[in-house]
Amino acid sequence: MCLAVPGKILSIDESNPELKMARVQFGEAIREISVQWINDVAIGDYILAHVGTALSKIDEADAKYTLDALREMGAPELDP
Amino acid sequence: MLKHIDEYRDKTLVETLVRTIAATVTRRWTIMEICGGQTHTIMRYSLQELLPDEISLIHGPGCPVCVTPVDLIDSAVELGSRPNVILVSFGDMLRVPGSHDDLLRVKAQGGDIRMVYTPLDALDIAEKNPEKEVVFFGVGFETTAPAVALTIKQAESRALDNFSVLVSHVLVPPAIQALLDDRQNRIDGFLAAGHVCTIMGIHEYIPLAERYEIPIVVTGFEPVDILLGIRKCIEMLEQNRPGVENAYPRSVRPEGNMAARELLHEVFVRVDRRWRGIGAIPGSGLGLADAYMKFDATSRFDLQAAETEEPEVCMAGEILTGRKKPSDCPLFGTLCKPENPLGALMVSTEGACSAYYRYSGSSMAEQ
Amino acid sequence: MNRNRNYTLQCPIPESDYKNVMLAHGGGGKLTKQLIDKMFYPRFENEILRQGHDGAFLPPMDGKVAMTTDSFVVDPIFFPGGDIGELAVNGTVNDLVCCGAEPLYISLAFILEEGFLLNDLWKIVQSIALSAQTAGVKIVTGDTKVVEKGKGDKIYINTTGIGRVLPGMDISPEHCSEGDAVIINGTIGDHGIAILSEREGLAFESTVKSDTLALNRMMMDVFRKKPGIHVMRDPTRGGVASALNEICLSSRTGIRLIENELPVTDGVRGACEVMGLDPLYIANEGKILVILPKYDAEEVVSMMQAHQAGEQSRIIGTVTGEYPGMLHMETTIGSTRIVDMISGEQLPRIC
User: Nearest CA of chain B to the CA of A74: how many Å?
Assistant: First the structure.
């Protein structure tokens, strides 16, 4: 139902406290996205953007854990 | 390379997951993905083809433009036809037919219909066109509603009195409950919509899982994410272990996004809503709270909600509960096609019938 | 890939005369003559145009003649990587190329909206002249009409192109046969995304430029050495998916694309992800799909790669006996997906 796409924060504009905005890069396309609901957001973070708003900050540790576990599972066994 | 996307479209990881799923499954299971975005990925990558025969995927009602009731689209069409109104919505909403017209046709007939990526852009349109009424047609689930709430709050601070919203937001848990209350449903487990849960968290799914003794797995949207969700769901089914699990932790926290949830509760209240193809579901919609009623297009323009009939032959209900497949419907691909949708599930590319039609080659087979 | 357009020359019609297009510029009188004499003739200079008749007399041609027509209504008229004038010439040239022809002559008709800036018309005329010169085609006849303000949108261009089919070339979807290779000369979706990035309500910052480019010089090389090409198509509106679907339908063969082989820039990919669009359905203006016997494919790819227009040429798929009449694709994860014809325009989606 909801297309949300990960993008990287390039800069943050907090001049309007009711509408914190960020420039967010998706591939090489850049759009202004509201980061109003994201705490401790920083340049370089990846957020998930849906209709111009960031839903969450992507948890890099969780992402790495999921992928590492899968890669390990798929790796050929060293000691058969 | 697109980070946090391409890793989850990886052939080796997909093969690993498919192998572990096949090693886990011992009997037939039917799993429903709630979300139209997930349906899109399943069709786009032909995931069903990779899965063991024991697993059937059925496609849920989570396409917001599909389930938007016909009478609200008729209201949007009526508003968009007025000379003093600019009607603004998302791209995929413009093609969805009401009882007579869709918004693209209204545009062709001279209506001022605009497409935006974000509802916030509708505010700029309102600011630039002070002599016009700007109406945003707000569709979508819990993921989209906060963006519309944010827009309404901004309209208030910017004192835009020519801006209003035709609200058609809907909620997932009441729909899951309605599907499970249908005694003929064949659903063994759910993949919950990861982006809805990113906002709402997972708590409202726990009582559903307990009451109906069913596994609900919060799931993401890329092929690897969906297979992770399916694998978790199959494990829970095989171990007869109902409950709620999170297979999309990089985005979903158990409590959701508190700031967005607070905003939802401030701007909206729960209302009853009719779903196209399903019917009325109590408490399944969002309407504006009293404090924000001045932004409500229905009352501003005194729109009368007319009950509209849906085609009787349409099998949307049976398809959504897993009793029928789109191809079982006599209208599928003959009278009901994406160019001329009769039922809710054919109207958007995320609708189960439309996705089935597009990616199964039904359109070519007939030529 | 796009040349720097030189817009620095002053508009030859002094601003003190008229700054905007007037209805009389299309009326056939003095102002029309001024446009022709001061703007069009000097820029499009060639002996056929100079004949100055109601139509052009073309010298006799050997062999089959190919003819095409196209209208250009793009909005915005100036976009990242090009403009409507360049698009008109390149589009017409490429349609002739897809017939296996060497493009020679182009007719040029403007429909201008009253009030359109003469300076913008001048920029477009220069752009047309430069594109025609680059492609080696002559503008041999033309027409200018002006419609009342509000009855048109700035400028529309109609072109007809005439070319000579090269000896031995016989292009038809019916020649498509199992095992043939499908080649494309570079990245897909650039033009459509460049236009979208300027569209109100959907605009975004982008590095993507239109790929508008004439492909005749690259393809004439190929035609002379490898005339056995079965079919060609320029994947403009509707993108690669629509062009190949048309070929599948008329040839009754299947075409299998390999998703991992499709060249797409991160600029186009990012924009497509955000809007929920599929690059396969997005317009290109400097791309050509070439379907030919497999044994010639590698060599033709190398020949195309020798030209700037084809540096990124590659094989992206195969003609198959499976799925007759259908375009299908091996996805990045190894499954097979049908790539359907699209119903209507691709709209950004939220779900």
Answer: 5
